[in-house]
Each structure stands twice: as C-alpha cells, then as structure tokens.
Amino acid sequence: MSTFSIFLILIIIVCLLLILVIMVQNPKGGGLSSSFGGGGAQVIGGVKKTGDFLDKSTWTLAGLLIVLILASNIALKGNYGDADSKLLQGDDIETTVPETLPEEVTPPTTNEATPNDSL
Asked: Given CA atoms 15, 17, 20, 22 in this order, what sign does their dihedral have?
C-alpha cells in the first residue's frame, strides 16, 4: 500500500468526520448543546461548552484536511515526479520514414449544392 493510498484513506475519514461535526451543529445556536438543557443553566457538567467543542473540532478537522491534501500531493510527486515522458527522453523514439508516400487526393472541381442540402 503506497503512502498516497494511506493519505487518501485518511482524507476520506477526515471528510466523513467533518461532515458529521457540521451536521450536528445548528447555525442558530441550538444544535447539540440545546438538546442538553436548552441553553440555560446546565445540569450536566461540560455540556455548556458543546458549541465551543464543535466549533474547535470543525476548525481542527478542516486544518487537518488541508494538511493531508498537501501531504498527499507531496507523496504523489515523490512517486512520479522523477519519471519523464518517453517523448522527452528521445531514446526510444523511432524515426522511420514510410517507403511509399500516400497519393495526393485531389479536391472535387465542382461544389454544387443540391436541393436536399441544408445549411
């Protein structure tokens, strides 16, 4: 398994986690934190900071996604960056000339349109 494949799997996992974290949030301040007490005095310890946790986890996962994408680009260039095209090398190119050249095709002398022709 190449390093690019490992980065690709990690990118997919981070994307799925990012989708999950974003879907749990509520843009109007409700979300997961409102389901544990409604935004007033919280009975369960630590639930008051659920919105902050979701916000920080969104930014963390987004940053991690960018880092993984850049690292996968470096890993991809590391595997294929040194290989040049065979056309650029010029060693394996065969320069053969055909023994006979094709005959020239003469264009038609008249260009008459028939009534069935359309524009």
From this structure: negative
